[in-house]
């Protein structure tokens, strides 16, 4: 320790002369000169952070009592800060010194390896560093994963696979290891094996959507085209994640405004809105006048439904950068959404004054005019966008919708029809055309358009909208058929809805009712049983079944005991007028007329305030029947 | 032959210098560098002005483009270079960080090549004369990229300029002047266009026009971006919304019809920077590959004038890992001699330049790891690029023009006023091994550290090898004169069709050789980054195989065979003068 103390005295002398911590000529490990960058152009918080860490290092160098390990960490800490801010030559030198002073610490070798790999692209040097880190701590997973990835880039997939296998042995649930094995297999042209590994990685980490792309390519090359297409449809930007201490350290060190804004953007893209909001708020705590941070936070708040908060943030951004059209546009859009049309118009006009070619601002302004029913002004905005870009799909779609709104259905049909022909893969045009066709009761044509939307696999919002429209359309059609007494056709229409994925309890009940009204009691029973198989606790389906089993004119269908059991159970779990009335019917069907009459009397008393004469007449009629020892009247007459 | 003389002359001088410095006699002569930087000695005096004022406006770092074209039909390639202007345009250029020389505002420049075939080969053969003023091309736009093609089939090559701002179609009148027919032809696009290509998408014989657009940046939507340390820096494309591209059909009457919707091209887009036509699936129709900056690329497969984007499934939208890359420069060629077109594109630092190898059916494999030039590109940002056989050994080599788009911190620290400088690179194809980085031995032009953007490829001195004209952002143009290619056997072909004859853009040419694979080349001018290249095809024959004939697949489908032309010279092959060939 005394000898090392002497070394530190020498080091501190050199540091005070050159400020670089280079212990030239010292008896001990020699350290590299650090190419400290000038902090002049950096933001204050970063300057202070770097200067603080440099002071700590210098103090450590100057203090003869500093232990070797402490000095290594002083270099390493500064290295991490430089690394976090992308100042990699300085970071690399710091890590090299930390390694010299503390060769037993694997973290420095790993950090140095990552700079070689990520920034410099020096693959052999990176490999050597990762191996060094693993020699010191073989259980460490992140260095091994990066060693595997480095070996892949060095075209040594067999060796890479060996490293990924070691990770998989130590951490059997590591998606990154499975993904690495998949990549190594693909590089060795073992595409089926690669696909298996990618599937395994996805099972372990389903949110890592980027793996789907690698899976799709493996499947394509294995000749499984359809499966490849399906995998492609699920691919996204989220990479496989794993615990990495270096990454965590770097994230902690990056404390500046720019770093926080960047991190906010990354978190937002990854869907971590809370994390993104925190990052932007941190940026604003350091720089309250930062327009980008206000804009970022405004976007998050708008996403979270806090319109007032978002408007406030956008206003601040616009106050800081009054000549920026984007801030004005964002503000205008949000003001429109909250119904503040006059303010929205002011901001959108300002945006367009600053940037006349901002087409989104024209479209939003058109929406403001449409809200005010100033259709002529709205049309002028759409025309303006289309003059600059005749292929602007949104503008053409909304202009078509506008024609429909003002009653010019012929023009709307022409516009949207032409658009769907010219841009057959643009789902919004099909959706709007479908809605228009449904409005004018061209059901089949409308249906085709909605189905086309679904075929195109559009974003969720449009897909849901098309599904809902399709269901509404089909229900409307089925109800019309039932009203016209075409029960079988109505039942078919309901069945089509169920087959298309719209099998909610209401639709199933409607189908069964239509069948029963047609006289198909057995079919109705089967459908109700099927519905209860899917929705066992649905009271409407239960009551319908009890009713059918108690009162069906077809004796082969009736099961009075079961009917009573179901009616009692349903009434216990969710009592209602209907459940009580059904219970009375079931009691009567079982010959328990006095009890049936008592229940029916209670139902009648409860229903009287409703003042529905038809209902009351029906209830009274059955009450009389029970009193006379007769079952309920047939409830299935159309 | 004459160039050899020049080389000896240079080596002679070098030898004197070496002797004067005391090198021992008998030291072996250094390997001759393949390129000589010859812009100044040939009169190609052009300095790009990007109008930067310290605000870090996005367009400042993206241009300029350049075209090599024979606008006066005298048989040699002239040079047209795009200029920038002050940003914002209403500011005084004197306030620029690097102001232009005093005098009239800088404009695009047209240099006529007064090649003297009677003098010795080398720089002295070439003389460029600035004919901008007389040509009508002294335009003060913010130029990005340029496409060449004879859209009106009058035999004179026309220009389409993609600008930050309204674009221009400039018709070559054939008398040394150009007229702006943008309005009457309906070819404007007011958005920020970054590339354009003339190609006949519907096989009607008229060149249609594809315009690639970038992002919705404007001075009014400008954002301040910063490096991680908070220092001011340029934004990337993801800071703005990408803009859709446009496809215009040539009606044949001087006007174009917008078929973006009808053709299906609207269905996908990103921030486009590069575009290259080719028949990637081998069905005889010209497809289009569009390279987008930071998002998935598109492979527009042509089904008789209607297009579908097949890039994702085909494996060339994203790299092998599934990441979009910052695609900028692009070229397509049959580098592996298997008869289909492969793709190479340039990317940002900390990404590889990426090689997609075609399996012949339009499906690709990211073969970057195996190939080599990906690794050398890790610390550089590539723009202009081209597959060309600089040494005429029969194998396609690669050049990459580099220049950063984000401030290089070490350069800023060193006080460099424009800290985006990088060296350009040359890669030589080594059959069976990939590409060897030959930058260090490539000549003085490759020692320069500049902010290079477009690189246009063509045989400027008609000596049978490919020269390169590189334009630098906020810097001088550099002419890289090839000194070695003509030492190997070569064959030059110009393919023409129609009356008057026009370059048959899109034709697929195979040079058949006895006992050796056919060398296939595409007649195209648009490739690289923001550039228009020599429409002629130059095939190196250094591996000694004898040419047995030439097969041409003309645009629109007809195939013809031509008897073996004499090597060592250029030939014009006219459609209809060969023997019909069966598919």
How do the helices and strands line up, and which of them pair or pack?
The complex is a heterodimer of chains A (638) and B (583).
Chain A: H1 2-18, H2 44-62, H3 68-84, H4 88-101, H5 106-120, H6 123-136, H7 141-153, H8 157-170, H9 175-187, H10 191-204, H11 210-221, H12 225-233, H13 245-253, H14 257-269, H15 273-286, H16 291-303, H17 307-320, H18 325-337, H19 341-354, H20 359-371, H21 375-388, H22 393-405, H23 409-422, H24 427-439, H25 443-455, H26 460-483, H27 487-502, H28 505-517, H29 521-534, H30 539-551, H31 560-573, H32 577-589, H33 593-607, H34 613-627
Helix pairs in contact in A: 1-2, 2-3, 3-4, 3-13, 4-5, 5-6, 6-7, 7-8, 7-9, 8-9, 9-10, 9-11, 10-11, 11-12, 14-15, 14-16, 15-16, 16-17, 17-18, 18-19, 18-20, 19-20, 20-21, 21-22, 22-23, 22-24, 23-24, 24-25, 24-26, 25-26, 26-27, 27-28, 28-29, 29-30, 30-31, 30-32, 31-32, 32-33, 33-34
Chain B: H1 2-20, E1 35-37, H2 39-42, E2 66-69, E3 78-81, E4 109-113, E5 128-130, H3 132-135, E6 143-149, E7 158-163, E8 168-172, E9 178-180, H4 182-185, E10 193-199, E11 208-213, E12 225-226, E13 232-233, E14 246-250, E15 256-258, H5 260-263, E16 272-278, E17 287-292, E18 298-303, E19 306-309, H6 311-314, E20 330-333, E21 342-345, E22 354-358, E23 364-366, H7 368-371, H8 373-376, E24 382-388, E25 397-402, H9 409-413, E26 422-423, E27 425-430, E28 434-437, E29 449-450, E30 452-458, E31 467-472, E32 478-482, E33 490-497, E34 502-503, E35 508-513, E36 516-522, E37 526-527, E38 531-532, E39 537-540, E40 547-553, E41 559-563, E42 570-574, E43 579-580
Parallel strand pairs in B: 2-38, 33-42
Antiparallel strand pairs in B: 1-32, 2-3, 3-4, 4-5, 6-7, 7-8, 8-9, 10-11, 11-14, 12-13, 14-15, 16-17, 17-18, 18-19, 20-21, 21-22, 22-23, 24-25, 25-27, 26-29, 27-28, 30-31, 31-32, 33-34, 33-39, 35-36, 35-40, 37-38, 40-41, 41-43
- The strands making up the biggest β-sheet of chain B line up spatially as 5-4-3-2-38-37
**Count of helical regions of chain A:** 34
The coarse silhouette of chain B is globular
End-to-end gap of chain A: 102 Å
Distance between the ends of chain B: 39 Å
Please provide the count of β strands of chain A: 0
Query: Which percent band covers the strand fraction of chain A?
Result: under 5%
Helicity of chain A, as a percent range: over 70%
Instruction: Label the structural class of chain B.
Output: mainly beta
Q: Tell me about the biggest sheet of chain B?
A: 6 strands, mixed
